[in-house]
User: Fold this.
Amino acid sequence: MSEATKNLSLSFLGAGSMNGAILRGIIASGHDPQLITATVRSDNRVAELRELGINVLVSEEDPEANRRAAASADIIFLGVKPVGITELCEEISGSLDAQKVVVSVAAAITLSSMQSHLPAGQPVIRSMPNTPLMVGAGVVGISPAASVSDEQTKLVTDLLSGSGDVHVIDEEQQNALSAISGSGPAYAFYLAEAMANAGVAMGLDEKLSIALARATVAGAGKMLSNPDADPATLRKAVTSPKGTTEQAIATFDEQGIPKIIAAGTQAAAARAAQLSEELG
Ligand SMILES: NC(=O)c1ccc[n+]([C@@H]2O[C@H](COP(=O)([O-])OP(=O)(O)OC[C@H]3O[C@@H](n4cnc5c(N)ncnc54)[C@H](OP(=O)(O)O)[C@@H]3O)[C@@H](O)[C@H]2O)c1
Assistant:
């Protein structure tokens, strides 16, 4: 993290699963927690957030919480549910200026939709993070509006890259990225779940089967985390001709698993497009 990035004041408006994962990742990568303010609606998560050493404001108790948090920050992460994003933009718009960058982590909410509820020319970035950011192994796709300077994009990239890979992409690609990396951690957990259930069906003790599936998916993920790793090459390296793994992969192919995965990801992207229509 550069010196300029380290000194940024950050606000997280809404600090649930996603914004909570991002702020934990940023703290783990060395950002001073005292430079971070989070807002939540109720006091449910306040104690665990305060344990991180950050400032926490509760909007139900303090109607100015979001505006105050926005006014004090250089970068403002909007992390409420998609349906609340434009209302939040309206709420904080009087606390913004052109030096501040607003970053939305909400699925489906377009830049133009946010821009119509923010001051003209406000730097705003649409992003799609994923929860492994919490453990320093996330992926984020960011799409800056034309109002965002290269320097501002660099600062946000630097801030997030301590906890994962950051890709700057055209906004048109956000739904596809969301279907692969945004929802993707759930697919990996689903695979581990299916493997564990398959082990039980073959007579393994349930606890043992879950332990085997968990460690196997996590270990394979670690091997894949090398930026030079290619999934197909790694798979071929553990698939001996006429061996057991070859039988499994041939069965997956026969049963159409790659097509099923393509159909699932297309359904996720289509749902994101539909949500953009409904909420945009
Ligand atoms: N979860 C994921 O894997 C994932 C992945 C990519 C993107 N996202 C995006 O992340 C966003 C949040 O999703 P989530 O899963 O993190 O939801 P979540 O866990 O329900 O978190 C929402 C947070 O917003 C707070 N909040 C609601 N209204 C507020 C207000 N008016 N002022 C201040 N705080 C308010 C909630 O506070 P209380 O808890 O007190 O109600 C909570 O801390 C969504 O837009 C979603 O599209 C999520």
